[in-house]
Amino acid sequence: MRKSLLVAALLLIAGSLGLAQVKIGINLELSGRFAAIGNQTLNGIKVANLQTPEVLGQKVELVICDNETTREGSIACAQRFVNEGVIGVLGAISSSMSIPAAEVLQDAGIIMISTSSTNPQTTQIGDFIFRMAYTDDFQGKLAAAYVVGDLGAKKVAVFRQIDDDYSYGLAGFFDQTAKKLGAKTLIQDFVANTVDFTAQLNNIRSFKPDAIYYSGFCAEGAPFMKQLREQGFAQQVVGADASDDPQCPEGAGAAFDGYIFTGFATPNLIADPAAKKRAEAFKQKYFEVIKNAKPGDFNGFVLAGADSYNVLVAAIKAAGTTDVKAVRDALGNMEHYPGVSGDITYKGTDGTPKDRTIGFYKYEVKSASDWKKIELFGKSTAEVQ
Amino acid sequence: MMRNTLLTLATVGLAILGLYLLTQAEGSSGLLSALTLIFIWGIAAVSLNLINGQLGILSLGHHGFMLIGGYVTALLMLPEKERAPFRTRLLSDWARNHLDLDKWLRGAGLDFIANSIDLKFVVALFLAGLAAAVVGVIVGAPSLRLKGDYLAIVTFGFGEIIRLLPNAPEVAALTNGPLGIKGIPGDAGTVWWTFFAFLFVLWFLTRLKFSSYGRAFEGIREDEIAAEAMGVNLAYHKVLAFTISAFFAGVAGGLYASYLQSVDTQTFNFFVTFFLLVAISLGGLGSITGAVLGTAIVVLVRIYGGFLEKPYPAYVGYLGGAVVMLSAFAFSAYIRKARRLRPVVETKHLIFGALGVALLLVTVLFRNEPWMTQTVQFFGLRKILLAVILILIMIYRREGIMGRAEFSWKLIFGPREDIPTEEQRKQDAWLSNPDLNPDAAKKEDDDASA
Amino acid sequence: MTASKLASRSTLFTLLAGLLLVVLIGWRIAMLGDYTFARIVQDFLNALTLGSLYALIALGYTMVYGIIRLINFAHGEIFMLGSYFAFYAMTLTPMHWGLALLITVLLGGTVLLVLRSLFNLEEPKRTAALALLIFAGTFFLLAFRNMGWIEALLLSMLATGVAGVLLEAVAYRPLRGAPRESMLITAIAASFFLQNMGQLLFGPRVQGFNAETILNRPLNFTIGEETVYYTGILIVVPTVTAVLLFVLNLFVSRTKLGKAMRATAQDAEVAQMMGVNVNQVIALTFFIGSILAAAAGVMYAIRFGQIHPLMGLIPGIKAFTAAVIGGIGSLPGAVLGGLLLGFIEIYVVSLFPTLSAYKDVFAFVLLILILLFRPSGLVGEDLTEKV
């Protein structure tokens, strides 16, 4: 009798331990325009989950929600996570989807770590909102310094997607800094799914720019670059981290040859040698775990996804409890966490990590099926004023 | 009449009680979200039903009215901190400073309204509906000259123009352009708010339907020329219908904006009108009850159909496809048998059956191949389901679930109309004639002997 | 044109409007300063291409409307299917012989059945010859050739034509006697169905369409001091369109089936009494319309370099507007409307760059204005039934 009671009790405890799970929500663009980046990030999170499947003796359950690259979908995912009582939400990718979700999650008091939103507004929404990326003011400033300084351009044409927060904001920062550095700029607007850039190209023809800055995504970038080169514009084009997407070279082929862009740092470009080693180790594990991974599938977004997962789990561990407020405080006070994308410090910031590395890359494209991403150099946000 | 009113009040009371219990229950927030959406879309659907169903004019521009309502509510209710230039980048300073309901109310001395966010929302939603109604007059005007599918295309065009306008740079000064407006207070997007708004709209439109206006609308639907001959002023009634419909669509749009706490042109695209169209067609064009029923079904599919779009191994997809094909084949055969159509199995339906069998074979034979076990996700399956539902309704049961009938207490509590009453029996020559009806003969004997 | 029409107020109004337009354009060109002749030529080439694409799609709309008075909302999706079939034809070939065999049997069989019913090929010898051609040809192309754009175009046209016929048979034929609003609603539902089916089967991402063909090599020639940049596609599109239109015209005016189509468009009941198989004619209309849309889809894909499942929405609406502008139900009207819309779109954006954000709004505004004030379009008959 007592033995069976003991067994029952043990079973109950074991069962409750098994049942006890820490839920982490994932709000990503897994379908729609940013599906490629979304899936890369998801892979990063999955590998990180494989490496750290448990915290505080409980299994970590990932609840995946696809926001379909729409604001509505992102809000729906956020509300679903509020209902399900998750500790934190990882995602979204783009600022346009992250900002509405952040509003919902901040109100509900749930932690959110956007893996790659770079628009400064996102973390300004509240103290429960964090991000893993740098912010666009750095990206824009660095890009402008490179275009005006290193490339010596005196006239720059800026192409921005007017209905996307990220593209719009980034172009603004670039424009500000370029003007401050003494260059003349001409801004051209387009909306999502634009395929015909004749109007915009006509407009910059008489402006005769020395260089062109493109702050949009690959869905529009591919036809843009194609038409740019077809229309006889041979200027250097510099892009941003949204161009870190195979859709670009695969979509427009040789038109992307020589295209330079800023983006999330890959292991080689991380200055800190310890972080570099961690990133390399993670890269190895990634290719072990993810079958059929092409070399182009591993980039800074994967690292960002993994680290978002890692810091949240680390914060739970540091807090010693699954109480959301305590975990948030632990996350907010985090210093020098050894992440695979670099050193991560949230203390004293509004949710944007200090000292992120931005990488500069170049596409070398022979054809749509034969292309390479060359790593040029990395710069830390600490260097930028 | 008394009985009906009492019953209706009792039901409403029960609903309020049920809702209250639900809000107190644990883990019910998913269901409450679903109910909120049913109420919001329900308002939009019954307002669309006013034109499409009762008036009989196909209008495809409803998303435009909702958009106007959403944007007006957003601009009026935007709190101070959201009006900072950083958050509302393209909004002009004039719009930022002057389009503020709070300022207007305090300026007019109506502090008691300005201090209550609920009352403010009532005013804001009313103004939103008004704005949409004004546009409704413009969109309704062509209905005086055009008919049928040409008119439908014109309303579609208006809807799309309204959707595209806020993106334009000149208008962006008022609408914050393609970035949309974020940070709208969510107080009117709660289940209680939407519930009472929904009740109000239902009451209003039901009263409208059973008034002379409602009869005029339905007369226009049945036969315009005859209605005009009977003295119904076509122009007045058509434009009136559009105006009222647009008003409530604007209200629904404002509620939705509050629910999402943000609004932009992507939220109110043509899919919204399509969604509402499926809802009212499913429920029954012309029936308010039908519209509500249809909306409930469609919203539940949209919210709870998410399981269809989760990752599954590929063979589930093939199996699912096989099941769908075979059941489509069986369904069509059944319908044809039931309607006594010959031949029972049509060639084109045979294709479905053949495809189904083929898919089944493929699933069984290649079950363990790698391309069968990899995980896939079927995104967009819910939208496909909605489209298929609409096509099936149009082909097999155009009148939807309720047809044009409304729910009434008579259905449940009234006397049965299919069984003859005593009075009717006595008056019925056949039933009471002993030569024809042996039961009557017996009854007469009983009566005589009693 | 009769004397009374010349003197009519509406023509006077049109002439005045035209004059105003010319003055406006002249003033605008003067204001722009850098609007060289080379730019005009460049824009002309672009406009001709865009207009031809719209014309091809508009023909499908107008033909279907002329015959069964249905606005086929799903036509834009047929256009999309055309580009995707061509894409898969070019990227998946040469394919494994087993798969090629399967597709040949399925596709070839369907094509054969459809063609037989469309073109009255009852003779066993003719059918056998056609069957041999289709099966052998398809199998060869699929299994052994890495298809180039021309072969892909032809195959895609055939496949999409069949898809159009299937769409009509499944979604529209059951509603043959129904009120027009029901058919319109079904068309809308079919459109959404195809869009989302496309997203499901082809993936929701934008797909790069890289026909690394001679068509995409940048070319240029100089006029005076300025260069005109273009690629081969800007020459090919109008040429292919012209060829297709010529063939279509021949078919409609010279062949018996073409005559049957014209008769059915005039009055379906009487045509039926005269012995025309109306079902066959309707299926044929959808077939031809879909072939043209597929051609437009493939050329659009080559021109802009990418395809995605929702690509048919906007071009579909614009092509429909074009058909209405020209006069819905009239074939030359559709071509005229398509070219006109293409020219308007390119030149207005070129002359008034600040209006480029309103590009799509134009189409809708034009649509509403035409439907309200001249529903018969430019070329069509005066339709009193609609007003």
Automatic annotation (TrEMBL), chain C:
Gene Ontology biological process terms, A to Z: D-alanine transmembrane transport; L-alanine transport; L-isoleucine import across plasma membrane
Membrane-crossing segments per the record: 12-32, 44-63, 70-90, 96-115, 127-144, 150-171, 183-202, 228-252, 281-302, 322-349, 361-380
UniProt keyword Cell inner membrane present: yes
InterPro entries per UniProt: ABC_transp_permease, BCAA_transport_permease
Topology term for the membrane: Multi-pass membrane protein
Subcellular location: Cell membrane
GO molecular function, one term: L-phenylalanine transmembrane transporter activity
GO cellular component: plasma membrane
Keyword Transport among record annotations: yes
Keywords (A to Z) from UniProt: Amino-acid transport, Cell inner membrane, Cell membrane, Membrane, Transmembrane, Transmembrane helix, Transport
Predominant location category: membrane
Family to which this protein belongs: Belongs to the binding-protein-dependent transport system permease family. LivHM subfamily.
Name of the protein in question: Branched-chain amino acid ABC transporter permease
